Amino acid sequence: MDTSGRRVVVIGGGYAGVKLARDLDEVADVTMVDGKDAFFHRVASLRASVDPDWTTAPFFPYDRLLARGRVLRDKATGIDTGDRLVLLRSGMRLPYDALVIATGADYQEPARFTGVTVDEAATAFTEHQKQAARAGSILVVGGGPSGVELASELRRTQPGSEVTLAHSGPYLLSRAQSRRMGARAQEHLERNAVRVRLNTVITSAGAALIDQSGAAYRADLVFWTTGTTPNTLWLRLAGHGSWLNAAGHVRVDAHLRVQGHPDIFAIGDVNDVAEAKLSPSAIAQASAATYNIRSFLDRTAKHGSQPRPYRTTPLRIFSVPFGPGAGTTLIPVKGHGLAVLGHKVTDAVKSRHLAVPYVARLLNQPVP
Question: Which 3 state secondary structure label does DSSP give 303?
Fold first, then answer.
């Protein structure tokens, strides 16, 4: 197929970027840019940080992702919107007809890719495993999905350690707005000897940890799971701070286009779409943007399609593992609100495999 005038540059090789690049590969000249040497399956990162058997499970090569396009291991440092060029740290200048910003968000340790190579990231996971094995007491700060999952994994892999989970809200998993789901998580943790402290705000005062009442917390090892930061500092440094909202997310219109720039899209954790920043949402946005980019590239065709607004979904299926074989799942049921499901469903949906087979297929890799 002739792809002249159909150059698509994708900045970022996370869930959203990979999905979109793969889906456009047959109809456009696709170049995906990412600084890492492999895809990072963040969903498996918490287990990898405490379980040696999972150390390398989150990493998948990019080598089979695109049949026609290419993946560059580099970093975007600027965007020239006038000449439609992406400027790279290496000095390369990539021309584009459509540009996609999919740089995601930065997570706190251990749910992050440390360094730029798989060896570096795997070494960081191994170090987390060693630290957990040496710790007599472990404190997890933040009772969202990452905190609950990490506390559960620590209890499973470190049965002799004292594990405490401190959460600022009145119930666990409070952003899911399901007290029943939070109650299930708390019941499981406490039944497995994890100390749960609700309505507790932990801050670091030098080397000390204190809560809002001034009470001290002591632990040999502390993990913070209190939020993420969109990876948009590079845009601000490149002179595009006006594209961002106060929280640092890229402001997009209903079609996932950067406001004021019909040829630039932003998808996944990096944008300001009001829905849960989870991998299923990133995948859904990638599919919507794929359609709209094809519409944009075909706009001069006689029968070119019209772009479609992206339909946000307050909640898709939302699963929180408590280790293999256990967890809780929230799923919308038409006409009945939200249903909270238990261990058996969650194990089948996520807990046992952590979506590793799905990601292998997404990257066109053999399913482990």
Answer: coil
Query: Judging by beta carbons within 10 Å of its beta carbon (0-12, 13-18, 19+), is residue 315 exposed, middle or buried?
Result: middle
Average pLDDT over every residue of 275-296? 95
What is the pLDDT at residue 295? Answer: 95
Residue-level pLDDT at 301: 59
- Residue 231 near residue 65, CB atoms below 8 Å: no
Domains 7-109+228-297 and 118-227+317-362 share a fold: yes
Cα distances from 141 to residues 156, 255, 299, in angstroms, run 18, 37, 50
Q: Are 221 and 205 in contact (CB under 8 A)?
A: no
d(CA 164, CA 108): 18
Q: What is the CA radius of gyration of the chain?
A: 21
* Side chain identity at residue 240, one-letter code: H
Mean pLDDT in residue range 233-253 = 98
Is the per-residue pLDDT at 202 higher than 70? yes
Give the mean pLDDT of 292-321.
Answer: 84
**155-172 as b/e: b if 16+ CB within 10 A:** bbbbeebbbbbbbbbebb
For residue 131, give every residue at least 6 positions away whose Cβ sits within 8 Å of its Cβ, in sequence order, or none. 221
The length of the chain, given as a count of residues: 368
pLDDT of the residue at 233: 98
pLDDT in tens, 52-99: 999 999 999 999 999 999 999 999 999 999 999 999 999 999 999 999
Which tokens is 120 given? 């570096």
Q: How far apart are CA 350 and CA 43, in angstroms?
A: 9
Question: Band of the pLDDT at 177, cuts 50, 70, 90?
Answer: confident
Q: Is 0.90 surpassed by the pTM of this model?
A: yes
CATH code of the domain occupying 7-109+228-297: 3.50.50.60
Q: Is 18 exposed, middle or buried (0-12, 13-18, 19+ CB in 10 A)?
A: buried
Instruction: Write out 72-95 in H/E/C secondary structure.
Output: EECCEEEEECCCCEEEECCCCEEE
pLDDT reported for residue 302: 54
Query: What are the structural domain ranges in the chain?
Result: 7-109+228-297, 118-227+317-362
DSSP 139: E
